Amino acid sequence: MITAWARGLTRHRIGRLLAAVTGIALAVALIAALGSFLTASKATMTQRAVRSVSVDWQVEVQPGADPNAAGSLVRSAPGTRTALPVGLARTTGFTATVGGSTQTTGPGVALGLPADYRSHFPDELRTLSGSGTGILLAQQTASNLHAAPGDTIGIRLPGAGLRQVQVDGVVDLPQADSLFQKVGAPAQSQPTAPPDNVVLLPAARFASLTRGATDVTTQIHVARDAKLPADPAAAFTSVTGAAHNLEARSAGTVLVGNNLGAALDSARQDALYAQILFLFLGVPGAVLAAALTVAVASAGGERRRREQGLLRLRGLRPRQIIALAGLEAALVGVVGGLAGLGLAALTGRLAFGATSFGANAGTWALWYAVAFVLGVTVAAGAVLVPALRDLRTVTVADTRREQRVSRSPWWLRYGLDFALLIGSWLVFRASSGNQYALVLAPEGVPSVSVSYWAFLSPALLWLGAALLLWRLTLLALAHGRPALARLARPLTKTLATTTAAVLSRRRRPLARSVVLLALAVSFAISTAVFNSTYRQQSEVDARLTNGADVTVTQPPGAQVPPSAAGKLKVSGVRHVEPLQHRYAYVGADLQDLYGVRPANVAKATSLQDAYFSGGTAGQLMRRLAQRPDNLLVSAETVHDFQLSPGDTVNLRIQDARTRALRTVPFHYAGIVKEFPTAPKDSFFVANAAYVAKATGSNAVGAFLLDTGGAHQQQIAAHLRKQLRTGATVTDLTQTRGIVGTSLTSVDLAGLTRIELGFAVLLAAGAGGLVLALGLAERRRTFAIATVLGARSGQLRGMVLTEALLLATGGLTGGALIGWALSEMLVKVLTGVFDPPPASLSVPGGYLALTAGATVAAVLAAALNGIRSAGRPAVEELRDL
């Protein structure tokens, strides 16, 4: 009997089975793909963090301890691959006489490097000119001293006097921030910038030059080869524990500067945000796929009840009927699950070049197994549970009693909808307020956590909006027959009233289809808008950091006039804008001061209104131009000093003529939150002409070059060759790679690539599959209408009217819900964005593709229904 039943299902109900299998396959594929990709991405984050560090540990030998004994201890530590001693001496200054002119610098650092240092730590130094060995000057120091390979410089060492050395080469120090860290100090106590004056000496020469000098220490630079866990949080815990273990075994003779731990600390936060995005953006897709399967199964509910009635009449017991329903559920679950795993593997192969998405075999198999089990569970819930429920309704009277629903007051019927929406708004207000952090990762603490209650806000919005749309659709179909008749008349002619009555009577299945389509469309919209907004803000962050397409930064103290811009206007450069960079004291607080030409600064860099408060970007630049002593102040400074518009702000700025600090009065005219090349906390923006007049110098700190967004790398390379060590040249492409986190470059791009593809499939399935199955279940109705005299054109109009209502209601509801969800997601996940967006970025092309695929699927289902309705009525009634 079971075999015959299975054959009958595959022969006569193949369309319904394939539709249910499709829903299961989408759910399984999405979970398997996203889970595998998330795990692989976490492992990639760990690998990127490890690769980004040149020196894993900087172990500083404490005063009075034996450097040799400390070195032996470090080399014996588990996981140590290389441990080299590096001498570090503080200097009081450098001098050089070049071309008859003597240059003197302030305090600096001298490093003593072993001969094989560069072979073990190749990323710490980059040769710019001259030899890569011997006495090496840092680029900034060479610029300050006007020194080049072959020149002689003097190093002043406290306790040892002036020592002369000949320069062999000039190098760049890409890892200078970590190289000159204050070992053992918390992040907030670290130097704001590495020293400007650095000389690197061979270890033997360092030892001879610093003999008798004070303030000399030894660091042991360590490269590790310990096997780290794939998850960044677990890797951070492992590395931090190993560093603490070394410090404990040293009995206070060493402190560990854990550069690798710092890199993993950032990566573990990115990993948590990737996990959050997986939950925020991925889980709704899996839920939708499961809901699609349930909707497909429920579309054949009436047919299933008729079949169960026939089986009971033929003497089958409930247990046997349950076994047959279980067979159908198993068939749908197993086939759909296997198809979903195949789809996931194909997605990985086509999009990422690996069926496992880069995850290891064990993790990949685990996620595939979990997804398969979930698919089978959804199939059981969609097919088997309704069959069990229908078995309890054994008579027509029972069915009628179940269908009779007492009419409750409107406030009770709509109360849950509004309660969910109000709850969503309240949670949203709380989760997007000041000082709120979704990811909690205290500095240096191994454990990180997520405030998961913020997930409640979009979840409540999703549920509340779906219920409200359900109620409104039912209300419109139940009480809007005249409007429905007018809508149907152009398509159905004299059957308009009948069509309206049919739609009203079938309002529950139609409302279910509208809600499912709306949720699928909202999922596609919210995912696409979030992804597009993130990419937009990543570009904004890179442009803010670099300042323009190409930026030429002058050495500190260099007296470069604005007229030097002419030398930088090489082929491909449309505009060169000088930007002053000074330092100013407000009270006892030292802050960056940027002098701009208000009328021209926007020609080379983007100034968004979101960067300012108290006026638009254009308005505030006009204020600086109209009143030169106006000043734009950061929000933090306004709050700290309790400033009000128009207040006088006295800044102390170094006078170029006397080298002393001079008090210059300004008037507070507005708030600047962000500005190109400026730091993220406190700074000022002023009129460059006023600053130059007040300080006696129009020296420029940087030049912002507009290349029209093209050939940035080529122009930057040309200028580096032209300027040599005289200035630092950075381009937007280079900066984009530096400021981009592992979340930017790995997870979000891949995550959304998967989700956007599935979102289109879900929207098309929600619109087409459910309608097609609903129309297939009503072939008997169309046959009876034909017998009663309905023409084919009128039947076609009935089908198209229903399809039109479904597409219009689903797309409109989905657009509204998607817009609200997008606003909420971007606000709740504001920690992902830097800086926060002023407005959402709407990907019109993708949304048009989604709408087009949905309309095409609905139209295809309608045309198929029209074709079925055109069969001879006698043949249709005989088959049914």
Q: How would you summarize this macromolecular structure in one to three sentences?
A:
The chain is an alpha+beta fold and 880 residues long. 45% of the residues are buried.
Low-pLDDT residue intervals, each spanning 5 or more residues: 395-406
Provide the structure class: alpha+beta
Number of helices: 29
Q: Indicate the radius of gyration in whole angstroms.
A: 35 Å
Beta strand count: 25
Mean pLDDT: 81
Number of domains: 4
Shape descriptor: elongated
Q: What's the main sheet like?
A: 9 strands, mixed
Strand line-up of the largest beta sheet: 6-10-7-11-5-2-12-1-13
* Estimated helix fraction: 55-70%
For the record, give the distance between the C-alpha atoms at the N and C termini, rounded to a whole number.
22 Å
Q: Give the strand content.
A: 15-25%
What can you tell me about this protein's structure?
The protein folds into 4 domains: 1-50 and 228-250 and 261-404, no CATH class; 80-225, no CATH class; 423-547 and 740-880, no CATH class; 550-706, no CATH class. The chain contains 29 helices and 25 strands. Strands 6-10-7-11-5-2-12-1-13 form a 9-stranded mixed beta sheet. It has a 6-stranded mixed beta barrel with strand order 17-18-23-20-22-21. The chain has a 4-stranded antiparallel beta sheet with strand order 4-3-8-9, with no helix packed on it. The longest helix has 41 residues, at 259-299. The radius of gyration is 35 Å and the shape is elongated. The two termini are 22 Å apart.
